[in-house]
Amino acid sequence: MADLDLFQIRLGYTFHSLALLRQALTHASAVAEPNGPREHNQRLEFLGDAVLQLSLSGALYAAHPMFDEGALTKTRARLVNEAALADRARELGLGGHLMLSRGEMTNGGRDRASILADAFEALLGAIYLDGGFEAVQAFVLREFAEGLADFESDPAADNPKGELQELLQARSPEPIEYRLLSASGPDHDRVFECAVWHGGMELGQGRGRSKKVAETAAARAALTRERA
Question: The domain that contains 219 carries what CATH number?
Answer without folding.
Answer: 3.30.160.20
